Amino acid sequence: EAQVTQNPRYLITVTGKKLTVTCSQNMNHEYMSWYRQDPGLGLRQIYYSMNVEVTDKGDVPEGYKVSRKEKRNFPLILESPSPNQTSLYFCASSFGQGSYGYTFGSGTRLTVV
Amino acid sequence: AQKVTQAQTEISVVEKEDVTLDCVYETRDTTYYLFWYKQPPSGELVFLIRRNSFDEQNEISGRYSWNFQKSTSSFNFTITASQVVDSAVYFCALSDPTGNQFYFGTGTSLTVIP
User: Fold this and answer.
1) A86 near A112, Cβ under 8 Å?
2) Mean pLDDT along residues A84-104
3) Which residues of B touch A87 (CB under 8 A)?
4) What is residue B70's three-state secondary structure?
5) Is the peptide bond before A8 cis (omega within 30 degrees of 0)?
6) In angstroms, what CA-CA distances link B62 with A36, B59, B65?
7) B92-105: per-residue pLDDT in tens?
8) Between chain A and chain B, how many beta carbons pairs sit less than 8 Å apart?
9) What pLDDT score does A27 carry?
10) What pLDDT score does B34 carry?
11) Cβ atoms A91, A106 nearer than 8 A
12) Which site among A30, A104, A107, B38 is 20 to 30 Å from A24 CA-CA?
């Protein structure tokens, strides 16, 4: 089944403790992206990647890092999480560029206390 | 700067009524892409439609239709004969010419009452 898999689905952590949210897709998509969803703000793009080793900032990259060492994986790294990073996170992938339409993962609900 | 506005925060309709979800966008680009996504109560995000800026033809897919008007910078979404399964949050989105950077609206929560 074609899908984008995120892990974990739920995560509660403490301020300052580094964490990684994994994202993997099995569709051989070149393009991948991370979003956060907050009430009243919709989805905001954090980072995107056009292909292996090619990443760039979205609208809200502060406090996040990404890497794209393999085509299928695009992990989101929070080196020192803070409570304002409590949010619902979505990974997405697309054939070619994102303009073809995304396939989204199921989301990761992160709480930073 | 790019921006997407969905002024309707919440809408409630009775089943079988038609409903239109508004989307207004701002961009300086002449080439861009517009999208609608659905987020049902289960939380996943589902792609509904993509439209490029050079294609102003309206589109119909079953009970769903989309009206793209460049003159008013709008890309509205109509559900005809709404059903309870249409209850969801609907997001309108705009991408830059490269398709790399995306801007989502704040979403419209639609509740269809049986």
Assistant:
1) yes
2) 90
3) none
4) helix
5) yes
6) 31, 10, 8
7) 999 998 889 999 99
8) 67
9) 94
10) 95
11) no
12) B38
